[in-house]
């Protein structure tokens, strides 16, 4: 099939098909006598994939990787997950830019003459937010931990600061404060291998579990095949605005620095319904175990053993400024839980 025939069949243009060829996504044969492109049935099938994935917002680079794994189910889904997470990052960033522009225009309306200062302030805020989101990386190598420890990987990462008994107690208390209602929709953030997800699912909720480690997510999906599980991190949650009745987050905030923790809190606020509740459980920065870990990180010891301070006071101040009702409970010598209810 020649290029014009292929383009007509696929509902696109010859120029588009040549562009995909230039990008290395498809390599049609060429007739010896005249050099015309000849598209086989396999080429057409591949182009159908390319066109469909482009319409779904997947970038060309990601499409190239995904198409290499079409017949490798797990790898295909892993790459599709990653592409979706990146697309959500773009969507969240676009929403923030729009809000920042709206706020700036509102300031200009109150001014006799629009000033550059308002635009520069908003631009600096967006620049800072973009830097914090792009600078996060998995210094703890959770994919490796998942391969080595399986379901126990989250506890293995916390072994120097939390006992198995303390870990289980913290999950139970988080569940009690969330007080899930059968049928309601909520999200677990930094879900790991699903240790808290199992407890939430047993309560009969409709749950989306979000985790940044592909290997941990694979274990969670194996344990809870009926729970929706998405690849993503706390800085750009792959969920629409105002959809969750509750949010649970256990031992994930300490992977973020102070600014990133506030960004994560803003993301939680974005997806939480009015009247919704959130429970954030983590290592208390006041505990001796956590303090020793912070000192180890500062001294340049392996980052896999280090955690960041859980910025309780900053998080509480943010929540209060947004009119949340707050309860703080110290679960034991190491763990603390921050529970908050969003205003109606």
From TrEMBL:
Lineage: Bacteria, Bacillati, Bacillota, Bacilli, Bacillales
Keywords assigned by UniProt, alphabetized: DNA-binding, Methyltransferase, Transferase
SUPFAM superfamilies documented for this protein: Putative DNA-binding domain, S-adenosyl-L-methionine-dependent methyltransferases
Pfam families from the UniProt entry: MerR_1, Methyltransf_25
Domain HTH merR-type, first and last residues per copy: 1-69
UniProt-listed InterPro entries: DNA-bd_dom_put_sf, MerR-type_HTH_dom, MerR_fam, Methyltransf_25, SAM-dependent_MTases_sf
Protein name in the entry: Putative AdoMet-dependent methyltransferase
GO MF annotation: an example: DNA binding
Native organism: Paenibacillus algorifonticola
Presence of keyword Transferase: yes
């Amino acid at each position: 099939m020649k290029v014009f025939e292929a383009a007509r069949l696929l509902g696109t243009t010859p120029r588009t098909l040549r562009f995909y060829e230039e990008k290395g996504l498809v390599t049609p044969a060429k007739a010896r006598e005249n050099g015309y492109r000849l598209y086989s049935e396999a080429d057409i099938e591949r182009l159908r994939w390319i066109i469909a994935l482009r319409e779904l917002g997947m970038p060309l680079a990601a499409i190239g990787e995904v198409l290499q794994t079409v017949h490798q189910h797990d790898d295909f889904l892993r790459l599709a997950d990653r592409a979706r997470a990146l697309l959500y990052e773009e969507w969240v960033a676009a929403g923030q830019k729009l809000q920042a522009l709206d706020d700036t225009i509102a300031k200009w309306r109150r001014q006799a003459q629009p000033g550059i200062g308002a635009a520069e302030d908003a631009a600096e805020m967006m620049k800072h937010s973009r830097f914090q989101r792009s600078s996060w990386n998995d210094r703890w190598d959770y994919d490796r931990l998942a391969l080595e420890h399986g379901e126990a990987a989250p506890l293995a990462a916390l072994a120097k600061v939390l006992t198995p008994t303390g870990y289980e107690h913290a999950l139970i208390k988080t569940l009690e404060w969330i007080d899930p209602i059968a049928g309601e929709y909520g999200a677990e953030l930094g879900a790991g291998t699903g240790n808290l997800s199992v407890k939430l699912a047993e309560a009969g909720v409709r749950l989306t579990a979000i985790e940044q480690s592909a290997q941990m997510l694979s274990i969670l999906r194996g344990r809870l095949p009926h729970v929706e599980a998405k690849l993503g991190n706390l800085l750009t949650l792959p969920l629409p605005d105002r959809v969750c009745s509750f949010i649970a987050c256990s031992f994930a905030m300490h992977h973020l620095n102070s600014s990133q923790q506030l960004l994560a809190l803003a993301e939680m606020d974005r997806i939480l319904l009015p009247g919704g509740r959130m429970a954030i459980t983590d290592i208390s920065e006041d505990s001796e175990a956590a303090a020793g870990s912070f000192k180890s990180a500062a001294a340049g010891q392996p980052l896999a053993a280090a955690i960041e301070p859980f910025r309780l006071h900053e998080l509480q101040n943010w929540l209060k400024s947004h009119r949340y009702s707050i309860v703080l409970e110290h679960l034991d010598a190491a763990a603390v839980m921050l529970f908050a209810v969003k205003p109606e």
